[in-house]
Amino acid sequence: MSLDEHPTIARLRDRPAPAPPPLLDQAWFRAAALEAGADDAGALSIDNPALADQRADILRCFPETRVVLAIVCRMNEAPVRSSVRSIANAEFHEGYDDVNAVCRRLVRRLGEQGIAALNTVAAFPMEVQEFPGKTWVVGHKPIAEAAGMGRMGIHRNVIHPRFGNFILLGTVLIAAELRDEAKPLDYNPCLGCNLCVAACPVGAIGPGGEFNFTACYTHNYRDFLGGFKSWVETIADSRNADDYNSRVEPGETVSMWQSLSYKPGYKAAYCLSVCPAGEEVIGPYLDDRRGFIERIAHPLRDKAETIYVIDKSDAQDWVAKRFPQKRIRIVRAAVSPTSIRAFLFGLRLGFQWRKAKGIDATFHFRFTGKETAEATISIKGGRLDVRPGLRGEAGLTVEADSESWLAILAGRRHPLRAMATGRLRLKGNRRLMADFRRCFPR
Q1: Which candidate, 323, 278, 37, places its Cα nearest to that of 165?
Q2: Mind listing the domains of the chain with CATH numbers?
Q3: Whole-model pTM above 0.85?
């Protein structure tokens, strides 16, 4: 039988030509999302400038994309506020299941109307083979911001004008045309109350907008991918069971087992718990601020728990100073860069702004060998600037073979050995290297 004689092809031979993508307005997309179970939604054209840095990845994932729809699903507030983290974690995970179910339901209903669409997963699974690079398909937060679903608070979570930060986000890619763009919110619901600053057990959030990603990632995501990698390395380094048990307490092992069996558990996320912003959330805070803080923030502050930090980091100092009732557990860095590009990108994530106070220095980095790159790194006033190329005068110039530098960062090679073999050269004020290392403990 030839292909043309196949019964399916014969039946569909005279089917009408595909219709062009429909032109639909903002209200239509929002109504479709709400009908599918979302609590709010906003649509953007793929050509929206806010999507410029994600457009290539979106189109790689779903080339037919013409509309990007931001989905908001509300969480239950009380479980997230609980100091019993198993309760809060169950709410997070069940909420993510809801987001994925809503997006999947929407994709099905659009398909029934002849509109192709794709659900980008709200949380896990991700493209983990890219770790420690970009593992997510789309960045839900900037899309939600651009679509008017809220604004980022100083704790780096999107705050919805009605629901506050008790929301989870999803994104649906749609093969349709958009008549009118959603507009970003014209104000920020964040109150600037700094409760998230006070509640964060590792001091990752600064009142001036600073954010220590590494501190947050090391503790809050201890049972996620980076912490799991660190745990496996600890197992590999242990000589026997007794040695392992001297390195890892029974509760840590059981916590990792639970996360592997029942989805990973967040260690804190207290910044969400204490946030009072949002029209439907703010009432108890306005009625009795002192009472709100005593009921919500103080149980988190006073909770006796283990806090995971990197040695000589801002987080270690913060816990010792602010939370003496919490126990410090020093762990190795969860992520080690596997490329020079990842190293330069990761500097912004690992920068310890408190350790950087008093430093005023410019560094030139020149990498040779397998991966070549040049960069200028400036540290001044507790702030970091990383720019490509060699700019201005440098107090210290670092020239390194790229593979050797990555091996030094991973602890596989000693810097002095690299210098002895000519794979690492320092030119200028070598004492500045100690300042640099202080800002990026590992």
Answers
A1: 278
A2: 19-178 (3.40.109), 195-330 (no CATH), 340-439 (3.30.1050.10)
A3: yes
